[in-house]
């Protein structure tokens, strides 16, 4: 598919323009356009409202910076330099892991959260950490699938099935149809709080989370505001996942 067609589809997938608690702006006030990559608990729909950790953090930034924020909803596949250059956003948020590869492509805010890749277990499962004793569900093309295939390649007899989305994996875990899946650690804590699923205490890896800053003129203001409000940001996270 050519870039023009990809861009057209992405623009169509910018589902709604939402102004959440907008500041009464005058003609000279800065308007910051934020794209949210959908995914709980960072940015998701609750009934007809957009909510989540990163949504609440942006509301805090809007209040502290005294700027109007315009909110756009994007699929995670929009985290692409070619796509973002077309959309004209100032900031992108949604639980974005600050990987070495992404640091070469994007300018990130100061990290505001530490996460990683966690194993989530179905409710009531007693597990000793032996991956050959349980059945995994993995998302097609994701890190979890790569990891499981490496285990198999090394000679481990690991049972797993490949699914299309995290939503399918969650459904199978809740129904007890599989034993384990791989999730972002903060998301795993959210699933524990809301569905009673277990989080294996040893993470596969750890990583920091930040927002992608596309408008370099805003970088210092955004970073300074985040650093100034570290405790408030932590309180926001705890509302969704509890203590961490």
Notes on the protein architecture:
By secondary structure, the protein is α/β, with parallel strands linked by helices. It has two domains: 3-114 and 208-241, D-Maltodextrin-Binding Protein, domain 2; 116-206, D-Maltodextrin-Binding Protein, domain 2. 36% of the residues lie in helices and 26% in strands. It contains nine helices and twelve strands. Strands 1, 2, 5, 6, 7, 8, 9, 10, 11 and 12 form a ten-stranded mixed sheet that branches. Strand 8, helix 5 (143-153) and strand 9 form a beta-alpha-beta unit. Helix 2 runs antiparallel to helix 9 (230-241). It is elongated and about 60 Å long. Mean pLDDT is 89; it is low at 7-12 and 14-28.
The major beta sheet can be summarized as:
10 strands, mixed
The percent of residues in helical segments reads 25-40%
CATH structural fold name of the largest domain: D-Maltodextrin-Binding Protein, domain 2
Number of beta strands: 12
Q: What share of the residues does DSSP label as strand, in percent?
A: 25-35%
Number of domains: 2
N-to-C series of helices and strands = HEEEEHEHEHEEHEHEHEEHH
Oligomer: single chain
Cα(first) to Cα(last) distance is 42 Å
| CATH class designation of the largest domain | Alpha Beta
- The gyration radius over C-alpha positions equals 19 Å
Count of discrete alpha- or pi-helical segments spanning 4 or more residues: 9
CATH architecture of the largest domain: 3-Layer(aba) Sandwich
Shape: elongated
Keywords: Signal
Organism: Fervidobacterium thailandense
Pfam family, one: SBP_bac_3
Protein name: ABC transporter substrate-binding protein
